[in-house]
Amino acid sequence: MASEFSVKYALAALQNPGYYAENDSEIGNRASEPFEDIDQEAGLEFYQRNFLSDNRISDVLESCFGQCKLVAYRIFTPEPTRIFQFRRGGEEADCILVALLWPPESEVIYYSNSLKHKLLAVDSDNGLLRVPQAAANQAGCGEGIRISLKQGGLTIQDGRTLVTFARGKPIAATFASNEFLKKWRWNKRVLATTEEMERKLKASENERFGLYVDFARAATSAADPTITNPQ
Description:
The chain contains seven helices and 14 strands. It is α+β, with helices and mostly antiparallel strands.
């Protein structure tokens, strides 16, 4: 079960050391479910139930951003020897936050106060930025803190904070403030989906939490009888 949650404490932790972590067996059980993206009905329901309806996440997002949008939603695989960032460090704060749901027997390594440094980083094959260990060491933030989530749990991190996915496959929802999206170029996700699913996705948005996406109509054999599946 989740322990007593304090928004004030979580906000302070996001400033220093740059992340908040909490063991939670209920989240662990839900994070063990097969992953589906938000362009599927089950995936959208999971996102709404486990991210937007979790007051720990929604209260932190609203306190930091006021208004924000989901800019990325995916699952990550373990890469215990690599260090990643969701965005470059040293830039203005309170722009990108990432909420991650971890299944049981997970481990994550966070690098305290790494968000304050502009580090050498290269594009990684998982869509994030990869930071060499030597660059983190040189900046004085290369010694990570290993967090064990035996029963699963929740982490919320500043997008600039260095992270290693040591064990387990977390489901990650990345949120950007509306103000950040007005000033910085960020590519929208394009969701190829049905008209009905597009309506459901738009209905999931509200004044506080939106989706940073464009829609494309998914081609189906029902819509075009000349389309056949490849053999």
